[in-house]
From TrEMBL:
The keyword Transport applies. Keywords: Membrane, Transmembrane, Transmembrane helix, Transport. Residues 53-475 form the Major facilitator superfamily (MFS) profile domain. This is Major facilitator superfamily domain-containing protein. PROSITE patterns: MFS. Signal peptide: none annotated. It comes from Massariosphaeria phaeospora. It is found in: Membrane. It comes from the Eukaryota. GO terms for cellular component: membrane. The chain crosses the membrane at residues 53-77, 97-117, 124-143, 149-172, 184-205, 217-239, 291-316, 322-344, 356-375, 381-403, 415-435, 447-470. InterPro entries: MFS, MFS_dom, MFS_trans_sf.
Length: 498
C-alpha cells in the first residue's frame, strides 16, 4: 500500500503547485498557459488589459494631439495678430515656421525613443515626457515674441517624439495580429475626438480674455498645459509596462496572467519574448523595403491629417466664411464621423483579416471629400466634404499602424518600424504645415491638389505591397520560403496580411 500513498502524495503536491502558480517544469520548456484559464476568464483578462492599457494611452494621446495642434485655435483667437504671425519669414509665413520647427526635433528623436522605452519601461518614460511637455505648453502662454514661441515648439518636438512610437510599439506587444486593429482604432479614436473637441474647449478658454490681464489665446496654452501636467503625473500610476513586466505595474496582472498574455502572442507570431538590444538588429531592419512602404503610406496620410489640424479652422473662416466662434465649434462634428468610421473599419479588418483594402477604402473617402471640400460653390456642401476627408484621413492612421504591425516580426524590427513609421508621419506634418499657404487663400487649390496626390500615391503603394505579399505567401504555401524569419527565429507558418 506504500506505493499508492506515495503516488497520491505526489499528485496532491503537483495540484498544489499549479494552484500556487509554481508549475513543475524545466524553465526552458514552453507550455500553454491558456489552459490555466477558462474562456470567460481569458476574456476578462483581455478586457482588463483594454481598460488599463488602451484607455490610458488613448487619454494621454488626446492631450498630445490637443497640445500639438492647438496653434490653429490660438491663431484665430488673437495670437496671429499679437505676435504678427502673418508676416513673412523668408518666403513662408511666421505661422508656418512655428508649425514646422516642431517637426524638426519630433522626427530626429523618434528612433531613440523606442530603444529608451524598452530599457526604462513605458510607465516612467511616457509619464515623464508627458509631464515635461505640459510644462512647455504652460510656458507658451507667456511668450512675448514669435521667436520664443518657435523655440518652445522645438522643445515640445523633442518631448512628444517619444510618445506616439512608444505607444504603437507598446500596444503591439500586448495583442495578437488580429486584435490590434480595434485597439489601435480605439486608441486613435480617443485622440481624434479630443482633437475635434479641442476647438470647443479653446472657444471656452477664449472667454477668459482679460482675466489677470492675459489674452484669451494665452489661456488656451496655460489651462491645457496644466491639464497635461496633471495627466502626466497620473499616468505613472495608470500606465502599464510590457507584458513580461506586467506584474510590476500597480494593481494589475499577476505573473501567471502576464505569462498567459506572452504565450498567446508568442503562439500567434513568435516574437513576444524580449530580446537584448542589438544596434545591428535594430538598424538591419532598414534593409526591408516593406518598412519604407508603410512609412510612405503614413507620410501621405499624415500630410492630410495635419493639414486639416493646422488649417481647418482657418479654412472655415476664410474660405467658407463662418464666424470665429462657429469655426471653432464646427471642427468637432467631422471628427465624430471619423471616430465611427475608424472603429468600424478596425473591427472589419480584425474580423475578416483585412488590412490593405481598409486603407484603400479610407483613401477613397478622401478622394471624394477633397474635391467637394475645395470646389463646390455652396459652403454647406463644402463642409460636407470636410466630413469625408476628415473621416478617411484620420481612419487611415490606425489602419496603417495595424497594417505594419501584422506584417512585421521581431522585437527590434518592430521597434525600428514603429520609429520610422511615426518619423515619416512627422515629415508628413511638415508637408501638412506647408500645403495650405497664406498666398493661396481663400481657395487653397494647390494644397488640395497636394492632398489628392498623397491619396493617389497611397493607393499605388498599397497595390504594390499587396502584390508582393500575395506572391510571397504563395511561395510560402508551396514550401519554397519561410517568411519573416532570422537566424534566431525559426517559427514556421507566418503569412503576410493583405
Amino acid at each position: 500500500m506504500a506505493e499508492p500513498r506515495a503516488y497520491e502524495a505526489d499528485h496532491e503536491k503537483q495540484v498544489l503547485n499549479l494552484v500556487n502558480d509554481i508549475p513543475s517544469r524545466d524553465d526552458s520548456a514552453q507550455y500553454e498557459s491558456d489552459t490555466w484559464f477558462t474562456p470567460d476568464e481569458q476574456k476578462k483578462i483581455l478586457r482588463r488589459v483594454d481598460r488599463r492599457l488602451v484607455v490610458t494611452v488613448g487619454v494621454l494621446y488626446c492631450i498630445s494631439l490637443m497640445d500639438r495642434t492647438n496653434l490653429s485655435s490660438a491663431a484665430i483667437a488673437g495670437m496671429t495678430l499679437e505676435l504678427k504671425l502673418d508676416s513673412l519669414y523668408g518666403s513662408v509665413s511666421r505661422y508656418s515656421v512655428v508649425t514646422l520647427v516642431f517637426f524638426t526635433t519630433y522626427i530626429v528623436f523618434q528612433p531613440p525613443s523606442t530603444v529608451i522605452v524598452r530599457k526604462i519601461g513605458p510607465r516612467i518614460h511616457l509619464a515623464a515626457i508627458t509631464t515635461a511637455w505640459g510644462a512647455v505648453m504652460l510656458g507658451m502662454g507667456f511668450v512675448k515674441s514669435w521667436q520664443a514661441l518657435a523655440g518652445l515648439r522645438v522643445i515640445l518636438g523633442v518631448l512628444e517624439a517619444g510618445f506616439f512610437p512608444s505607444c504603437v510599439y507598446l500596444l503591439s506587444t500586448w495583442y495578437t495580429r488580429f486584435e490590434v486593429g480595434k485597439r489601435y482604432s480605439v486608441f486613435y479614436v480617443l485622440g481624434s475626438l479630443a482633437s475635434g473637441c479641442a476647438g470647443i474647449l479653446a472657444y471656452g478658454l477664449m472667454q477668459m480674455h482679460g482675466l489677470q490681464g492675459k489674452a484669451g489665446w494665452r489661456w488656451i496654452f496655460i489651462i491645457e498645459g496644466v491639464l497635461t501636467m496633471v495627466l502626466g503625473v497620473a499616468g505613472y500610476w495608470f500606465l502599464v509596462d510590457f507584458p513580461d513586466k506586467a506584474h510590476m505595474s500597480w494593481n494589475f496582472l499577476n505573473e501567471r496572467e502576464g505569462k498567459f498574455i506572452i504565450d498567446r502572442v508568442q503562439k500567434d507570431r513568435g516574437d513576444a519574448n524580449p530580446e537584448p538590444f542589438s544596434a545591428a538588429k535594430f538598424f538591419r531592419a532598414g534593409r526591408d523595403i516593406k518598412i519604407w512602404g508603410y512609412a510612405l503610406i503614413f507620410f501621405n496620410t499624415t500630410t492630410v491629417t495635419y493639414a486639416l489640424a493646422y488649417f481647418l479652422p482657418i479654412i472655415l473662416t476664410k474660405n467658407m466664411h463662418f464666424s470665429v466662434g462657429a469655426a471653432q465649434c464646427l471642427v468637432a462634428p467631422p471628427f465624430a464621423l471619423a471616430a465611427i468610421v475608424m472603429y468600424a473599419t478596425g473591427w472589419v479588418g480584425d474580423k475578416y483579416h483585412m488590412r490593405g483594402s481598409i486603407i484603400c477604402f479610407n483613401m477613397l473617402l478622401c478622394l471624394i471629400g477633397l474635391p467637394i471640400m475645395g470646389f463646390h460653390k455652396s459652403p454647406a456642401v463644402r463642409y460636407f466634404g470636410v466630413f469625408l476627408t476628415t473621416a478617411g484621413s484620420n481612419s487611415n492612421i490606425p489602419a496603417t499602424m495595424a497594417y505594419q504591425a501584422n506584417n512585421i516580426r521581431g522585437q527590434w524590427k518592430r521597434a525600428f518600424c514603429s520609429a520610422t513609421l511615426v518619423g515619416f508621419g512627422g515629415i508628413g506634418g511638415i508637408a501638412g504645415g506647408l500645403v495650405f499657404r497664406a498666398q493661396d487663400a481663400p481657395n487653397y487649390h494647390p494644397g488640395l491638389y497636394a492632398c489628392i496626390a498623397c491619396c493617389l500615391l497611397t493607393l499605388i503603394v498599397v497595390a504594390l505591397l499587396s502584390l508582393g505579399f500575395y506572391q510571397q505567401n504563395s511561395r510560402a504555401d508551396r514550401g519554397e520560403v519561410e517568411l519573416e524569419t532570422s537566424d534566431e527565429d525559426h517559427q514556421k507558418g507566418f503569412r503576410y496580411t493583405i
